[in-house]
Amino acid sequence: MDDGFLMEVCVDSVESAVNAERGGAGRIELCAGLVEGGTTPSMGLLQVVKQCVRVPVFVMIRPRGGDFLYSDREVEVMKADIRLAKLHGADGLVFGALTEDGRIDTELCTALLAVCRPLPVTFHRGGKRSRGSSGAVAGAVVLGGVTRLTESGLSMVDWHLVKEMKPPRTQQEWEAEFRKYQQFPEFKILNHDMTLTEFKFIWYMEYSHRMWGRVVGLAYILPAAYFWRKGWLSRPMKGCVLALCGLVCFQGLLGWYMVKSGLEEKPDSYDIPRVSQYRLAAHLGSALVLYSASLWMGLSLLLPRHKLPVTHQLLRLRQFAHGTTALIFLTALSGAFVAGLDAGLVYNSFPKMGEHWIPDDLLAFSPVLRNIFENPTTVQFDHRILGIASIVAVTALYLFSRKIPLPRRTRMAVTSLLAVACMQVGLGISTLLMYVPTPLAATHQSGSLALLSMALWLMSELRRVPK
Question: Residue 106 — left, alpha, or beta (φ > 0 → left; ψ -120 to 50 → alpha)?
């Protein structure tokens, strides 16, 4: 590689791969049927080429010649070929996909990228053809990853508590804001053909999110200051109010800290611009803690405590409810890693993952602990297990509660918890099988909050009566 350029040669035989390396190629793109434009090579060819050359070998993933419009069955074939290429020593992967109007199919590319990890990917944009194919792609750009569904979270590239509350109004202000966005990796790598109109849409999405966050902050801080000044807060309540207000401020700062991870230039990374899944999980986790603490305080103040008889069964039910709530919280938190890694697009089948109960690439990363937080397959597997464990725990909790005489309101809380848990499982499976459509995925995410709310309600119903 000289002056930042890498010569990549597309080959379809062992002999041409060897000749390409001798001619100075810095990387091989291996395919079959080069005359037809290239298709996925056999794994036997990959193994032999790997033995004969020392430069990296990237494998083309293309189930057939012709256009780049793929059916669902062809997509499953591509995913299977990616997994095989990873298992047989590919150094990287090459693919492309278009929509019917000739634009990059970002949804499909995102799904394929999730399967490719941790290998680097080269994306080639083929022209839409009625017949034949474009062949090897000229001017392929080596990216950290392949384009994904347009994310709005990185559209606002700076953070000001007051200044950013006023959106751009004139054409000049919008163009200035767009130019700022164009300086960051998401535009350069992912959205370089984005128009100003498209940018306005994702900008307003992020703007609405930030403004809503400010409204939440004011909803906590202003009433707290008023009640404090009036002397309506007890000493313990003052501590709770300070903790909640502090958590609100921390949540805002953590949100910007998360966004910054997606704005950083990463010259040595092969991934697409995205926020860190660790920071995303921290941001979601702190939001869940804030929500849970606020709901718990509200339930404690508004709902009178039951005078429940202290029995061994009731103590066990209370402990069971606490453990189930913790499991539901952990399951919701694991969803942040699923979202951050696009892990919901790796295996879109249920109950099996592809053809296996336990996928072959479950522990593909080294060291093994990395798989839990960075391997999309493992992350999806863990989320499945946690979700199944949650519905089993809720069902067992419901059945156990039937043996204990409980007040009507407590019985309603148990029944509601089971109903929402069943709904949430149905939403999760549907989201997976339908390749994570945005409306359904958003509903599933909302369902996790509803399920956590039901669990906290039940805990509140079972809390001890102070002596």
Answer: alpha
Cβ atoms of 277 and 336 within 8 Å: the answer is: yes
For position 400, what pLDDT does the model report? 96
Angle between the 277-302 and 438-461 helix axes, to the nearest 10 degrees? 40
Task: Tell me what pLDDT residue 433 has.
Answer: 94
* CB 61, CB 158: distance < 8 Å: no
Kindly state the tokens that stand for 421: 């848990």
DSSP 187: I
Residue spans of beta strands (DSSP E) within 62-183: 92-95, 121-123, 141-142
Indicate the residue type of 366.
S
Cis status of the peptide bond prior to 351, with omega within 30 of 0: yes
Q: Which residues contact 43 (CB under 8 A, 6 or more apart)?
A: 84, 85, 88
Residue 135 pLDDT = 22
* pLDDT score, position 359: 93
Rounded CA-CA distance 152/34 in Å is 39
26 phi, psi to nearest 5 deg: -90, -10
Averages of pLDDT over each 10 residues, the chain, 467 residues: 62 85 84 75 91 91 80 90 90 83 75 85 52 22 26 68 80 86 75 81 78 80 84 78 86 83 69 79 87 84 73 92 97 90 90 92 91 94 97 97 91 96 96 87 86 93 67
Alpha-carbon gap, residue 111 to 149, rounded angstroms:
10
Sign of CA dihedral 93, 99, 104, 107: negative
CATH superfamily of 8-142: Copper homeostasis (CutC) domain (3.20.20.380)
Q: Are 57 and 14 in contact (CB under 8 A)?
A: no
Give residue limits of the domains in the chain.
Answer: 8-142, 151-271
Name the token pair of 55. Answer: 């430069």
Task: Please tell me the predicted confidence (pLDDT) of residue 410.
Answer: 92
Question: For residues 406 and 403, what is the distance between their CA atoms, to the nearest angstrom?
Answer: 9
| Helices 235-263 and 277-302: angle between axes, nearest 10 degrees | 160
Instruction: Give the DSSP letter string of 218-279.
Output: HHHHHHHHHHHHHT-S-HHHHHHHHHHHHHHHHHHHHHHHHHHHHHS--TT--SPS---HHH
- C-alpha distance across the termini of the chain, in Å: 76
**Separation CA 139–CA 10 (nearest Å):** 12
Place of tokens 């949650």: 390
Q: Which residues are paired to 122 by β-bridges?
A: 94, 142
Say if residues 329 and 296 touch (Cβ distance below 8 Å). Answer: no
